[in-house]
Protein 1
Amino acid sequence: MAKMVINPNRKLSRINRQIYGHFSEHLGRCIYEGIYVGENSPIKNVNGMRTDVVEALKAIKIPVLRWPGGCFADEYHWKDGIGPKEGRKKIVNTHWGGVVEDNSFGTHEFFELCRQLGCETYINGNLGSGTVQEMSEWVEYMTFEGVSPMAEQREKNGHKDPWKVDFFGVGNENWGCGGNMNPDFYANEYRRYQTYVRDYKADHHIQKICCGANVDDYEWTEGVLKTCFSHSLPFQHGFMDGLSLHYYVHPEGWETKGSATDFDKKVWYKTLNKALFMDELIRRHGAIMDQYDPEKKIGMIVDEWGTWFTCEPGTNPGFLYQQNTIRDALVAGITLNIFNKHSDRVKMANLAQIVNVLQAVILTEGDKMIKTPTYHVFDMYKYHQDAELVDSSIETETIGDEDEWKMPNLTESVSVDGDGALHITLTNLSADESYDIDAHIVDRKVSEIRGEIVSDEMHAMNTFEDPDHVRVKKFDGARITENGVSLTIPACSVLHLELR
Ligand code: AHR
């Protein structure tokens, strides 16, 4: 019996809803086909945005969307994507498949999408191949209200009122596809570019995100922060609101990656073990951030995370299209529990990517759409959005296939929402063992339990022929006890309990 202790009296930090954010790039069939089909498409749409996809994303309360990349961002010239569509430049998407990008989805379309979704906006600017002037004019175009050349152009293009930019990324992966810079060079560029990401509205601050590290490149984090906070630039509110981190799970390493659907038990454990590494990454990058920002004013922004497998056979390798199984559901459940536990530092995270790319929550084929197992985890975890993380712990056993891939059998996180309900999310990483859990809740009598679960054998997935094979099911296996609740969590599962 695994003992779990929950102390709702000890509120630790607010779980920003933006931790449940998403990422959309001009990559493969993410934007085109996946989200945007154009006004004249036979697929049901509103102003070109697929209605089925928009509705599905609203149902998981998508809080924020990042766009237009990714690597694409540092080659994106925003002026190509405004004005009458027939006049928009056709360019080659050099990063992703060498296909023609007709720029029919640009700034106006992105804000229309976010309007329909009811979510916040995260724009990623081009520092790698763009100029300071270009970045500064984009911000003016999007947000300036009054008389200015960019505001005038926006009005001419059909949008008189400015939009609200909530987050702005000053470059992406500038250690790699965003310009192959070293930390010192990038940090100096960051200092310069961010100066011109202006707040045109006195009552709205655009949160600026500095490009952080790839995986465990602690030297980058240290180097960037050192230069950013040196010489006559004292800590000022709004100079840097976030520092990003990118981490993908490749079970067989970056070169080989591994199949999304064809894997054995050893690879199952390897994958989940790699997902757990997120915890160490947050701790170690966080410890460096603490030296410069002990009050934790700067958020860690994990704006790319998820599984990255070998793309589906027969698809364009530059499109990064992969299937999604119960293993992905576990990666999502584990990672989101880790983010919740670190919500004092992690302020936003964006799963890569929203539709048809990498660990997508949605896959489409023509007019058909399916929700992946990962989607259903986001659905169950949505109750944590803006709730208070509370103190909790669980006894674990060590499981795994080989010495190298040993790990705890269970992970958890617990929050209290605005109505006082307690939300417990648990993952069982074992491929074949179920576990009994006895949860003791300090100073609280439980009168009502609602349980839901995503669970199946490890390869289970949804297909266009069998779209609801994996879905959220009712979980009746929890019982009220003297001190809390007890339950048995099946193998390969992600579970949510709501207690009142
Ligand atoms: O998400 C796919 C790519 O992964 C992004 O474009 C890039 O930022 C990262 O390397």
Protein 2
Amino acid sequence: MQRIGIIGCGYVGLVTAACLADAGSSVLCADSDKRKIAKLKSEGVPFYEPGLDELVLKNHKAKRLRFTSSTTEVVKGSDIIFICVGTPSRSDGSADLTAVEKVATDIAHAMDAYKIIVEKSTVPAETGARIRKTIEMAGRGKTEFDVVSNPEFLREGQAIHDTMHPDRIVLGVESKRAEKTLRALYAPLRAPVIVCNIATAEIIKHACNSFLATKISFINAIARICELVDADVLKVAEAMGLDKRIGPAFLNAGAGYGGSCFPKDVDAFIHLADQKGYDFELAKAVRKINTDQRTLLLKKIEEVLWNVKGKTVAVLGLSFKPDTDDLRNSVALDVVRALQDLGALVRAYDPKAMPKAKTELKSVRFAKDAYDAAKGSHCLLLMTEWAEFRDLDLGRIHKLMQQPVIVDARNFFDPETVKVQGFTYRGIGRGASAPQPRR
Ligand code: UDX
């Protein structure tokens, strides 16, 4: 059984580690954040991902999953080493790969036998080649090694499911030996395996995320047109999705995409293409449509509230999507700040993300539940479609608000139901039933 090393205990590293340990591998994880390692050794996972706490604790107790602050210990004690460190966006849209280079150098210095180094973090094409060069130079050729690109396709909130039940495994390899070893590691998952060279695997990841982002921006653009001709984007999306060539997923119009992946990956892909001399206009349009969604939402709120200054807006949901406490590139945070810039008073509630939101937002009244948030508000703004909001007693909300207005950034509510209950309703692409936001 191959000994597994994981460097970087974030969403990707920790989920990969826990799932491989649960499948029987011995896994040793390192992270440069000593506090995170201490917490993992004692209390569990430092972020919310459904089921991850239990999986980590179970495998840590069974000693299949161990934690250390020493990268050297991981390298010397592993046969396959996964690089799972962050690759955040820089201001020019390029991916910041300094952490990847640092890890590659540390691996080179610690390597004492043949190792397979797996690039798991999402990186631009040609990063694998850079990792090889770095290890060759820093390691001075003292031992043989292989680099593999094995991109993850995990959705936050469903990361364990997506790891255990992948649609496919992608292996970007440079040797039969590495291919054989990784095929054996993933064999129990019984998923289709795509084998290619490293650059192809790196492009696959960026292409997948950019295409998903394209679907979202496409339906958001259609929603804009629906509002001009009194059409309903939900019906459009439903009919489109029944075409097997299109499929229903990722056609939910709304406030646009956020998170730690789509914005970063689209930016990095555009930057890579630009660097190589191709103007990726399509991806630039996807990004612009997505950015414009925030402006559209603010215009809707202003249209329905008239003067925003001094008004109280109750925001339901702060995380970038449901079932996570992740606030990275959350549209909700941008909208809260923009509302405050317009002079609005903001009350907010999120089932999981408020502890983190308290360090990101100022002058927000954090509520204990949705009703507390709605108290005295002039507008209820649904930003993240948490399942618990399905059970809201709208009659009680109606009584608590100063005026019964709902702006629904995720088309979460049924317009007819809320209108019958006396609310003024605004959704995204739900027909021209409302006067158009001022241009
Ligand atoms: C995404 C990819 O799905 C995953 O395969 C990749 O590995 C990492 O990036 P994630 O960012 O966790 O996963 O969330 P996802 O569920 O894809 O949603 C991304 C964003 O798109 C969220 O802000 C969500 O609100 C938004 N979204 C999603 C829409 O606006 N409409 C949709 O129909 C779907």
